[in-house]
Amino acid sequence: MENFGSLDKKSLHVTLLKRTLNDVETEKWTSLMFARSPAATDKSSIE
């Protein structure tokens, strides 16, 4: 039973880690989009 317990903890840890990485990637893309959109509107207004 101990092996199953450690396996569950390990897989849970991996799942949490993947979820955290996904959140980080999402935040990166979100900030990129927010950073780019004002620049795009500025360029179009200048032109």
Would you mind describing this structure in some detail?
The structure is a single chain. The chain is built from 1 helix and no strands. The chain has one helix at 2-46. The chain is rod-shaped and about 55 Å long. The longest helix is centred in the middle third of the chain and has 45 residues, at 2-46. The protein has 47 residues and is an all-alpha fold.
Task: Jot down its keywords.
0% strand, mainly alpha, 96% helix, 1 helix, 47 residues
Measured as a percent range, the helix fraction is over 70%
Overall structural class, as computed from helix and strand content, comes to mainly alpha
Portion in strands: under 5%
H/I helix tally: 1
Question: Could you give the distance between the termini?
Answer: 69 Å
Q: Which spans have pLDDT < 50 for at least 5 consecutive residues?
A: none
- The outline comes out as rod-shaped
Order of helices and strands: H
What does the secondary structure layout of this molecule look like, with pairings?
Elements: H1 2-46
Summarize the structure.
The chain has 47 residues and is mostly helical. The protein is built from 1 helix and no strands.
